[in-house]
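Hi R.,

As promised on Friday, here is the backbone we talked about, encoded as structure tokens. Could you run it through your design pipeline when you get a chance and send me back a sequence?
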């Protein structure tokens, strides 16, 4: 990820190393970095938007079994089998270090976010492998990082001046996604937490015991502390956070289904939004949209953020009078919703003629124009309905 690499590069350039100096200068470096991100957002707003703070996974927002192969065709079981094998490699490294099952879960969530649980020989800059570790940042040689057991060990125990999970004080009690972020230092820290549900399922498929006891430091005994660790289940991760909404724009115009007409305040008009979605799909798509269906729909209409945590929540915050339950005949430009069997659900922009623009349906991370029914036939999702392109909490 570009922003994460900028942060790591900045820390390296300023001579901030593993222990004391990080504590002394970390706050200053972070403040400078945040200001930089704000400025980047001013000049490049569309690419910086975020769908949610802790979006769950599932078809449409990704799953343990990837939704497509490298050619953009339907997922095959061998890909899921590869993910299961890599999950076993990660768990073996955790057990070798005598770490509890919670450490395995955090590592699985991290690898799923960073590489879709694939041992990639490429990535942003020189990022590689399951955890997208960088040789230039001291994580090891390319050959070492591409060895799953080595990469997992590095994640757990650290490598060079890079902190591992066991270097994080209280890692076993803080939220799972927060623990992952403290190792990875990603520019998108909110995305790790969303993989918990899918990674628990993948662990079951791999025969991994996530309730296994162990040491928080890599020793042989448990800490004995019975304080309940924080997870997305008890950290209010699933609750929609309040948002004040944005001021909108003059381009919104009106939206009608032939019976009712609504006034929109989106920065882009319906025509502009549809044109933007088409231009940024297919061959024009970049691979930044993995698990970001809600972010994509908000950005299509010119917003920088949706203001809600999950795609499915967007349906509920739209006024009831605008919800068209089960109606399969939306006007072009409408937002369509599906229940995927996971907390997040899925949302897509209807382009007309039965087509929608959506992430992940053909290629993980990319936007493609597909038949609206494909979510049901390919993912087994249940269609909920549509709403006008209204974002009550966006900004």
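Update: got your reply. Pasting your designed sequence below so it's all in one thread:
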């Amino acid at each position: 990820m570009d922003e994460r690499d900028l942060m790591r590069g900045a820390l390296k350039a300023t001579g901030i190393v593993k222990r004391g100096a990080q504590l002394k200068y970390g706050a200053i470096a972070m403040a400078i970095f945040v200001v930089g991100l704000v400025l980047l957002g001013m000049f490049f707003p569309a690419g910086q938007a975020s769908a949610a703070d802790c979006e769950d996974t599932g078809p449409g927002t990704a799953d343990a079994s990837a939704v497509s192969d490298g050619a953009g065709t339907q997922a095959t079981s061998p890909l899921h089998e590869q993910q299961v094998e890599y999950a076993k490699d990660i768990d073996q490294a955790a057990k070798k270090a005598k770490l509890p099952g919670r450490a395995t879960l955090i590592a699985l969530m991290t690898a799923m976010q960073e590489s879709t649980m694939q041992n990639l020989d490429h990535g942003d800059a020189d990022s590689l492998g399951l955890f997208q570790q960088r040789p230039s940042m001291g994580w090891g040689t390319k050959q070492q990082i591409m060895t799953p057991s080595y990469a997992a060990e590095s994640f757990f125990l650290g490598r060079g001046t890079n902190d591992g999970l066991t270097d994080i004080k209280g890692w076993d009690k803080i939220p799972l996604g927060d623990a992952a972020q403290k190792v990875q230092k990603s520019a998108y820290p909110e995305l790790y937490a969303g993989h918990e549900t899918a990674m628990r399922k993948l662990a079951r498929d791999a025969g991994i015991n996530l309730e296994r006891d162990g040491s928080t430091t890599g020793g042989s005994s448990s800490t004995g502390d019975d304080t309940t660790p924080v997870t997305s289940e008890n950290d209010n991760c699933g609750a929609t956070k309040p948002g004040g909404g944005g001021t909108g724009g003059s381009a919104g115009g009106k939206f009608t289904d032939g019976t009712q007409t609504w006034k929109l305040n989106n920065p882009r008009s319906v025509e502009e939004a549809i044109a933007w979605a088409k231009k940024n799909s297919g061959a024009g798509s970049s691979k930044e949209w993995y698990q970001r269906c809600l972010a994509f729909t908000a950005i299509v209409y010119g917003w920088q953020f949706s203001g809600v945590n999950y795609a499915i929540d967007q349906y509920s915050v739209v006024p009831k009078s605008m919800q068209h339950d089960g109606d399969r005949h939306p006007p072009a430009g409408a937002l369509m919703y599906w229940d995927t069997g996971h907390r997040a659900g899925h949302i897509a922009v209807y382009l007309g003629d039965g087509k929608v623009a959506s992430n992940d349906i053909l290629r993980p991370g990319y936007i493609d124009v597909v038949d609206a029914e494909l979510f049901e036939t390919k993912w087994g999702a249940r269609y909920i309905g549509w709403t006008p392109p209204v974002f009550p909490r966006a900004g």
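One thing I noticed while checking it: Residues 20-43 form the longest helix (24 residues).

Thanks again,
M.
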